[in-house]
Specification:
By secondary structure, this protein is of the alpha+beta class. The chain is built from six helices and 16 strands. It is 18% helix and 38% strand. A hairpin with a 3-residue loop joins strand 9 and strand 10 (145-152). Helix 4 (189-199) packs antiparallel against helix 6.
C-alpha cells in the first residue's frame, strides 16, 4: 500500500513538473509572439514585378501562393473584391499582421492590388490582383525576414490615364478628379484602365489626397464600346450617399480619354441606367446626389 502511494505521488509530481516545464511557462507565462507582417511593398525590375512581405521575429512557418478563381475571406467565406485579370492568394501560417496593412495598390506593369483576405487563428492571407496570369516564384530572404513573390512581365504595356477623386480639389471647389498614369496591356486599354481605377490610389497618391470614390461599387462587368458609346455595368453596389462626387465622375473621365469614346452610359448592378439609348451620358438613379 505504501509503495502504491509513493508511485501515485511520483506520477502526480511528474505531471505537475511537466506542466511547469511547458514552453509557455518557460517563457515567463506567455506564448512567444509569432512572426508579424510589418510592411508590404513592390517595385518593377527588368522583366518582372517584385512583391515583398516583410516580417519581424522571423519568417512564418508556412508560405504558399497560388492562382484562384476568386479570393475568399477567412473565415466568413465571402468573396473579397480584388482588381485584375487574374488573382492569387498568398497564405502565411503561424503568423500575425501589423496595423494598416489591409490594402495596397501599385502602379506597376503586372501588379495592381494586394488586399487582406484573412487574419484568423494565426493564419494571415492576402488576395493579389495582377494584369495577366504568369508563373510566379515565391522565395524567402533574411535580415530582415521577407517573403518575396516575383511576377514576370514579358508583355508590352502602354501608358494611359486613370482619373481618381481629388479630395483637396473637391473640398476647395476645384476639379473633383485628377489623372494619374498607369501601365496597361494593349489592345484592351479601356478594360485595363477600369481595373486600375478600381484598384485605387497608390500609397503615395493617397498621401497626396487622391481617393477612389467607389459609391459602394466593388468592380465592373460588361464593358463595351460601340458607336462612340461606352457602356459599363457596376458590380457590388451603387449609392451616391448624397454626394455630387461619385464613381461616375471617375469612370467618365477615365473612359473619355480614348478617341473611340464620346459618351459613357453607366448601369447599376441590376442593369439599369437613366438614359439607355441615344448619344448621351447616362448614370443610374442610385448615383444621383
Amino acid at each position: 500500500m505504501t509503495n502504491m502511494r509513493i508511485v501515485a505521488t511520483a506520477v502526480a509530481v511528474a505531471g505537475f513538473c511537466g506542466l511547469l516545464s511547458a514552453p509557455a511557462l518557460a517563457a515567463g507565462g506567455t506564448t512567444p509572439a509569432p512572426p508579424t507582417l510589418t510592411s508590404i511593398r513592390a517595385a518593377h525590375h527588368p522583366g518582372f514585378d517584385r512583391l515583398v512581405f516583410q516580417f519581424t521575429r522571423g519568417l512564418p512557418a508556412k508560405r504558399t501562393v497560388s492562382y484562384v478563381p476568386k479570393v475568399i475571406a477567412d473565415a466568413s467565406g465571402k468573396v473579397v473584391p480584388v482588381s485584375g485579370n487574374a488573382r492569387m492568394r498568398v497564405v502565411f501560417s503561424a503568423a500575425a499582421v501589423g496595423k494598416n496593412l489591409n490594402q495596397r495598390s501599385f502602379a506597376l506593369p503586372g501588379l495592381l492590388q494586394v488586399v487582406q483576405a484573412g487574419n484568423f487563428e494565426s493564419v494571415v492571407s492576402y488576395g493579389i490582383g495582377v494584369a495577366k496570369k504568369e508563373p510566379v516564384h515565391l522565395f524567402t530572404l533574411t535580415n530582415p525576414a521577407r517573403v518575396v513573390i516575383d511576377l514576370p512581365t514579358p508583355y508590352r504595356t502602354v501608358a494611359a490615364q486613370v482619373f481618381l477623386a481629388d479630395s483637396h480639389g473637391f473640398a476647395t471647389g476645384g476639379k473633383p478628379v485628377k489623372a494619374v498614369s498607369r501601365s496597361v496591356i494593349p489592345p484592351a486599354l479601356a478594360r485595363g484602365v477600369m481595373q486600375r481605377l478600381f484598384a485605387g490610389p497608390t500609397p503615395a497618391e493617397f498621401a497626396a489626397g487622391l481617393r477612389l470614390v467607389s459609391s459602394d461599387a466593388t468592380g465592373f462587368k460588361n464593358l463595351t464600346i460601340s458607336d462612340h458609346v461606352a457602356r459599363i455595368q457596376l458590380t457590388g453596389g451603387c449609392n451616391s450617399h448624397g454626394s455630387t462626387l461619385t464613381i461616375a465622375s471617375e469612370i467618365m473621365s477615365t473612359l473619355k480619354q480614348f478617341s473611340s469614346v464620346h459618351w459613357v452610359k453607366i448601369y447599376d448592378p441590376a442593369g439599369h441606367t437613366e438614359h439607355p439609348t441615344g448619344h448621351s451620358d447616362s448614370i443610374p438613379t442610385g448615383l444621383e446626389p
